[in-house]
Design brief:
The chain has 2 domains: 4-133, PAS domain (Beta-Lactamase, 2-Layer Sandwich), CATH 3.30.450.20; 149-312, Reverse transcriptase/Diguanylate cyclase domain (Alpha-Beta Plaits), CATH 3.30.70. Helix content is 46%, strand content 23%. It is elongated and about 95 Å long. A hairpin with a 5-residue loop joins strand 4 and strand 5 (117-126). By secondary structure, it is an alpha+beta fold. The strands form 2 sheets. A 5-stranded antiparallel β-sheet has the order 2-1-5-4-3, with helices on both faces. The N and C termini lie far apart (108 Å). One of its GO terms (molecular function) is diguanylate cyclase activity. It is an enzyme of class 2 (transferase). InterPro entries: Diguanylate_Cyclase, GGDEF_dom, Nucleotide_cyclase, PAC, PAS, PAS-assoc_C, PAS-like_dom_sf, PAS_fold_3. Residues 87-139 form the PAC domain. Residues 12-73 form the PAS domain.
Length: 314
């Protein structure tokens, strides 16, 4: 016959187990010497579909883990446990019907009086919804970053992206002693175009010009951006002055040949553009901002000289 003390302990044990098994967290215990499950909560079957008695050893735990997660998580948990360090691990657990559920294991290391690891106890939590939210936030963040470098109207890169790419190509050109060319393009009499046809038609015009410029730059590293307003810019890495001049002339010709009506133009009854182009092999004393200013001055000269022309130093 049990005494009152042992009866009380049994009652306490039953209470603790009832509390544990009534939560959504899944309690478990592993004997460190045998690497066998001493206990795992019955909630495991509802979550993963595997029966409670099928969790015999840590091998069952490891084999029911996504192959991409297995080595990393197992090695981490073993090393932390050996060191006697409490830890957490996130991984994808295989369900009995072949799906994967995101699990977070929270592990406490139990030591004996000699300080040796005796057991691991912990809880499994279903964090699938949290992971879905995290992944969606990552996707949205990536989309936001992409949008922050893209012009919303034309779909081309924007000024911010231009600054980043120019800085990168500038460093490459200086390091490899290669020519770097830049073209600035401005649509002629664009204010008058908007006044004549309206801003919606003006937006359509900008989008058409963007597509024309994309067809003019044929190499993978050629970079096109909307510089601002009706201005566009092309970065041509490893392109000498003569080749850059040809690209600029091709841009000008393609825009003219598109035959976009422009009744308010003071030069031709079709849309035209003025371009400035220059080439540099950057040295340590040169600055990209000064180079852009130089090309901008050439663009201004092209407009002053009558528009629908390319101005360069060639």
């Amino acid at each position: 016959m049990k005494d009152k003390t042992s009866e009380g302990m049994d009652t306490d044990s039953d209470v603790y187990r009832t509390l544990l098994e009534s939560t959504r967290a899944i309690p478990w215990k592993i004997d460190w010497q045998t690497m066998q499950f001493a206990y795992i909560g019955p909630q495991i079957e509802a979550l993963l579909g595997w029966s409670q008695d099928s969790w015999v050893s840590v091998e069952d735990w490891a084999q029911r883990m996504h192959p991409e997660d297995r080595d990393k998580v197992v090695n981490f948990c073993v090393s932390q446990s050996r060191a006697g360090t409490d830890h957490e691990a996130d991984y994808r657990a295989l369900t009995a019907d072949g799906r994967y559920v995101w699990i977070r294991d929270v592990v406490h290391v139990v030591r004996n009086e000699d300080g040796e690891v005796q057991a691991l106890v912990g809880f499994m939590f279903d964090i699938s919804e949290r992971k879905k939210t995290e992944q969606e936030l990552v996707r949205l963040q990536k989309e936001l970053e992409e949008l922050s470098f893209k012009d919303g109207l034309t779909g081309l890169a924007n000024r911010r992206m231009f600054d980043s790419v120019l800085s990168l190509e500038w460093s490459n050109a200086r390091r490899n002693h290669q020519p770097l060319s830049l073209i600035l393009l401005d649509i002629d009499y664009f204010k008058q175009y908007n006044d004549c046809y309206g801003h919606l038609q003006g937006d359509d015009c900008l989008m058409r010009v963007a597509r024309i410029l994309e067809s003019a730059a044929t190499r993978a590293r050629d970079f096109i951006a909307r510089f601002g307003g009706e201005e566009f810019v092309l970065i041509l890495p490893e392109t000498d002055a003569q080749a850059a001049e040809k690209v600029a002339q091709r841009c000008r010709t393609l825009i003219l040949d598109a035959g976009i009506p422009h009744e308010s133009s003071e030069s031709l009854p079709f849309l035209t553009a003025s371009l400035g182009v220059s080439t540099i092999i950057p040295s340590h004393g040169d600055e990209p901002g000064e180079f852009v200013d130089e090309v901008d001055r050439l663009l201004y000269k092209a407009k002053q000289e009558g528009r629908n022309r390319v101005e360069s130093l060639v």
